[in-house]
Amino acid sequence: MLPWMQYRWTSLCLLVAGFGTLTLFLYGYFPLKYNSGKLSSMDDLPNFIDGVSIDGQQVYNSGENSVVLMVIDGLRYDFVTEWYMPYTGQLIKNKSACIYVSVAEPPTVTMPRIKSPERKKEKAQWRRTINFWRDIFAMMTGSVSTFADVALNFGAPAVRGDSVLRVAKARGRRTVMYGDDTWLRLFPGLWSESDGTTSFFVTDYTEVDNNVTRHLDKVLAPDENKKPSFDFLVLHYLGLDHIGHLEGARSEKIKPKLGEMDQVVKKIYTAMQQWDRNGVLIVCGDHGMRDAGGHGGATPSEVLVPLVVLRSQDFVCPHPLGQGPTVAQVDVAPSVAWLLNAPPPGDSTGRLLPALLPQDTRQHLYLLHVIAQHNTKQSLPTDTEVYRQFERAEKQFAHYLATGQQSAAKVAKVFYEESLEKMAEYLASTSTDFDTFALVIAECILYLILVALFSVTLYSVQPSPRRESVSHHAHRSHAGSIVAFVVIFCIANFVLVTACYISETKSQVCAFNTPWITVFAFLAIALTVTYFFIKTGYQKIRDLSIFKDANAVDNLLILATPIFNFSFFGTSFIEEEHMTWYFLWNTLMFFVLVKTLMVFTIYVSKLWVGATEVQDKPELKLRMATVGVGILPKWVLLIALHRYLRTMNQTGDRWLFLPDTADWLNAPENSIYLQAHLVIGTLATLKICLSNLSYLNNIIKVHSVFTIAAVLCILCYRVATGALDPPLFNSNIKSWDPVFIVDLFWAILLAQFIFEIISYIGAFKSCGLEPIVTNTPESNKFVYNKPKAKTEDYFYDSMVEEPWNVDEVKLNFVRSMTHMMLNDLMLIVVLLMRPHNVIMVPSIYVTCALTSQCIDHKLLDPKSGNKYEVLDIVSGTLAHMWIGIVFFFYQGNSNSLSSVDLGSGYVGLREYCPARVALRMGLHAYAGPAIAGAALFADIAANADTWQQYLKTIWRATNILAWHRMYAVTVYCAVCILFRHHLFVWSVISPKLLYDFVATVFSIQALATIAQIEALAHVTNMLARMFTYKSSL
Amino acid sequence: MFSLHNQLELRKVTISSLITCIYLPSIITVISYKGILYSVGNGSSCYVLALIFCAELLKSFYLNSSKDVHARRNKVNKNKAGDILRGFVFMLCVKFAFFIGIILFGAPVLECHEETLMLSSLLTLLTIFPLILHTGVETSMQLLFGIKNYGRDTVIEMLVNNALMTICGAWLGAVVIPLDWNTPWQKWPIPCYLGAIGGFLLSNVLTVLKVSLMSGATKYPILNILVHVLNGFQISK
Questions:
Q1: Which residues on neighbouring strands pair with residue A236, listed in sequence order?
Q2: Ranges for the GPI ethanolamine phosphate transferase 2 C-terminal domain (chain A) (predicted)?
């Protein structure tokens, strides 16, 4: 196994395996029971009960009803009393109304506390929509939603499946909505009439409700036939919740507000008496509130909400006085659907509210049957006790229909109710259940892969792993290792199968059917391979002395990186992850500042005291000479720059609403500063790109022309999209087509790449385009030549003795490629970024360059030597990673799905194309890590002395990167398992898991790119040999 | 690592640390009983700083008291008023540097200047002020930039250690700010302010503990292990 550990891309392979395991984890974590999309119709109503025929549609008919659903935001259970709401309380006491305890799905996020600036409205809107999502979803579709429902509806949170409103529309009912416009966004096009109000001003608790109430008189007034003008009316009152947020549940303002709500109930109830059809009023809260006023928790005062049912005619509540039975929020959907004479919505799993069930035994039983049968269709297995109970009930019902025996009816009713109760339990548990077996297995495998990667990494950071001593071991046990592999593979299989049977899991992993058997085999192979890696690592890792020489900065980087991940065990640290990173990054900058300051003062004071002492210490002079005295002011300026960039975008959750620099820049009156940011950012990028071109094969400045042309394209694009005012002399750029400009931009980048490859192959030589020969040795670095004196017959030499400078050219090629990649990446990101964020791009580069200078041990440590070489790689890699993450947050990203910038996905696209949009969005979101990574690899290539050293450095750096990614994923998956029933699992924990997933994809992509560049070096080398061979002939 | 050679210095260090361990918690207890603990960021709570200032001044008189009489006389002969003035100017500079540094570290830029100033004053008082009192401006500046090594001077070692622990306390105090507990003490700059005081206090407690353990270790050598552990806590190397 040792050759495997020494193989350069082992970490990449392990990372890919880890990615596969992560996918399995995601499968187990997000139950893919999202909306079936099944639409129900009246024809679904059964016409035969166990062979006895019955006219379904006629029995189902509930008569003429008008339903009013009055949702009072934040209405908690103890608010519906005679003290707060006298009229309603009286009705409940008279048994003219029924009160139920309804258990709300814990809401996920609370509202933004104060007015959000205009630009952030979209983000806040999204969060609010998610907040209402579960409650409204449950009430209108009758099914509990899962995270998949939200994630798959990304960006356009509309309910796609069946809902009460869909069936009502299909039956031609008139639906009216007054209140929060979230309802309109969730069910677009399903309302006959609506007036949505936005409620961002939490200080406004009268106007939002008046906007709802003002329509009441008109809409409740019956027409000439004494019919109201609607069939289903939704009223959503937000004022109470706003008061709660402002002043808490004990506020003085609560009572008048509830009195106002009571008046609304009275108004509706009296209006209902005027109609000649039945009116039903359902008053409920969507969630409660804490005494402090907030909500979002799972305490009884937040979760228990009242549900009051009033009926205009001949209604007596069947329940005794008191707190009332418990119902679920999903029960509203089938009840309303039935009242509207529409079938229960396709995905509904609720029951009918008991108070609404008719007295007529036949209809009563039929309704129970319809609901029970509907619920059995929701993926309920037929071999359970619940199902058999349902069948027994059906038999009794059929018996009653045939004979009319009341005793059969009673038995049927009891059976139906029992089976419905059990079904509700079963469906609630399966719809939100995780595939625990898959989760645990995936986590174990992830852990093993992590340990394997860890041993590979530790192995690679040993000062000099001896390859020579291995080569003669390798042959010895070839067959033996195969046998060992097979044996371990069998054991792994055995362990997995035993785990399957002992845990008696229902998981798909243990289903042993065709698609899943491959997953199973993959798991077994992963187990086996990681076993060998860990074993070899345990045996071969001997020399970890490099960590003994670590200074404070190294220690910070090496220790803080793994410890940081454990902060995720607090959910606020997930939400506010950027704070932790800013904190760590500040600390690092401070450490470096102190170190630099020390070196600087020692140097200056020695210089001041006398020149002789400096001469005594030539290495001190050397250290300063490499970076110059300017390093200290530069570093201080960098800290200031970072402080500025941190104010650019507020991110996270708690302080999201605070105005930030981006808000200020985007205000119309400050557009001149915004444009200045844009231009400075773009031009600074141009300058960096041009300076990077010195590593390229810049034959007669062709690359400079390409780069400048690309930057011109970007500027034209900005002008064309209106982000930049056109220059005076040519103002018709504004009318150019942005898509064409972006296409041209891509063409330029592609042409540049092809030109570079061809120049390496040496094709231009034949055209007479030689690089301009100067005296520096750099100028002919791209030419294959023989350092030795030419002999006549060198073409006939064997390949081993080839004296050509192949390795040197390969190294130059890799240098050129990595720098070109860095340049292109920066230019593309500049194109994609929002105007105020463009300044980030040169900042990342400058930060990377300065940091790698400052944490270099040549500067910081008095004794320089070879032993710091590996430590330099370790801390350099980790530092670049930190920079990437810090910029990820500077740019305004967070661990919430709402901060993904959808706009960047459509740059230079005419129509929606999922792959391209996703790529652009991903690159935009991960611009920081991507550029920092590219800068790291360019830096490695630029600083390598030989091709062999380059390969070794790359090997170490990729190992560290892969290890860190795997580490982050493993720890976070453990957090996910631990918090799977946490209240914030939707709003905080799951989105971060998706972010980690995407980050893993990008890491694999980055490492693969480096592997490709290396492969390309070999390929061009081969091609060049052919070309040179031919042209020389 | 303290040495047992200079019993006098050791005693001075212990007593001054003990005084700190008494007066600082008393101040905190009194203001928290008064219910104004969470207003330490406001300018109105300047008296806390004044109290600390007086206490540190008295402590430094004690620390400097039994120095060599001749050395004292030499110093007195110099321009005392100028010394004090220079000390104040230097402290103002350090305070300003702290102010800038805290803002660079993430304190609000445009508002809360009062709070940030209070924090930087506290940090100055707890870190630089005792050093200046004990050694004078030049030496403390040299100590600051790492040019001068304090060698075996136990008192200076304690002071530098206190300063470092104070900074660390303020630094660690910031950890609680992002938590969503919505408590009044998460407001800027209370966590850092209290963290600084806590760090200072902890450093003093550790000093007392270590000296007592060291003297105990002469009788019971097993205690040396604990001393060794405590030495690990010391940041000043």
A1: A71
A2: 845-1002
